[in-house]
User: Fold these one by one.
Assistant:
Number 1:
Amino acid sequence: DAGVIQSPRHEVTEMGQEVTLRCKPISGHDYLFWYRQTMMRGLELLIYFNNNVPIDDSGMPEDRFSAKMPNASFSTLKIQPSEPRDSAVYFCASSLSRENTEAFFGQGTRLTVV
Amino acid sequence: GENVEQHPSTLSVQEGDSAVIKCTYSDSASNYFPWYKQELGKRPQLIIDIRSNVGEKKDQRIAVTLNKTAKHFSLHITETQPEDSAVYFCAAWDQGGKLIFGQGTELSVKP
């Protein structure tokens, strides 16, 4: 398996535009996590899914953020409209069906909103 | 929900010395505690983990200890090398399925 795949690797957009980040988890992994990393706030958990179902989205900062997982091999994180303070590295991670196993991270998407 | 506190935020040691990073967690039901290493510009990667039924685990130069009573766990790196320089994150995985990270420790190993 190629690991967790995220796209794009880099995204530069203007304030107010819609941004969509994509993630393909490792095949067979039932947990999928979205994290945001900034210098000030570290690695923040935004939302996680179990078997494609959103379980906890309490970390999503505002209604401008939304996430979906239409099937076991694909998830999106959307920001609409984007703001400069959304600039960060967004990581997707996945882990096996049973809890308490290693979470594998994608390479991340570096988002810059100007 | 779970909260993980990590200290120190930065740590500088001489090559060959030991480094210790400490974390506390709030949810007594948490039962899995991984440690991740993140090099500059790269993704976090697991270096060692410990489950709640174990007090200590070692893997070559790294070890992790867990005190469930105190809700405290630590990472120990011995004989540090320049390539150990990175940001280290502790995390706790609670029974609800949330994987929560500490704030990170930037370790610098000086040759």
Number 2:
Amino acid sequence: AQTVTQSQPEMSVQEAETVTLSCTYDTSENNYYLFWYKQPPSRQMILVIRQEAYKQQNATENRFSVNFQKAAKSFSLKISDSQLGDTAMYFCAFMKQGFGNEKLTFGTGTRLTIIP
Amino acid sequence: DGGITQSPKYLFRKEGQNVTLSCEQNLNHDAMYWYRQDPGQGLRLIYYSQIVNDFQKGDIAEGYSVSREKKESFPLTVTSAQKNPTAFYLCASSSPFGGLWDGYTFGSGTRLTVV
């Protein structure tokens, strides 16, 4: 079974600063996907970024980027130039590679607050 | 627009009652999932269905039941056997077909409270 660990229950940062959220995972699979989801106060889950394990290049989406270290089983999320709208719960998630309808395993989340 | 609709948004249940949470999708997705969210515990998988008329237990299935009679619908029943049902419930769907695959599409959730 896979496990996902987010060791930072809460974080806060000043607006416009950079913040990094940590995530580690444990798996015996070699092929898998990793995701970061954002859950704002509306509680709607929003996909932030995804990484395929077979890709060595770290994924980036505008101000969001990841540091994927496969050997260390680490998958951190960096948010640059943070904005008030980034205030949310952030969940790291793991999915083994299959036919696209596999189970997502989530971490316990990090509550991020952006301070004006 | 395609998406997932969960209803109701808020639901109150008396002790000993069964309640059913609705989840409908018009994305033509094959797979559907139910997750429970509690503070400090992230999202935990209750049940999932990869195809019509078939479903599997997730990590915390006790006290819950589901059906998948139609591709579009995956209702979750919270039975009286569920000892602590107060939580936020999220439904999701996914499909491996049709271009770029971005994981799950989530509904907006149902907040269930036992009174």
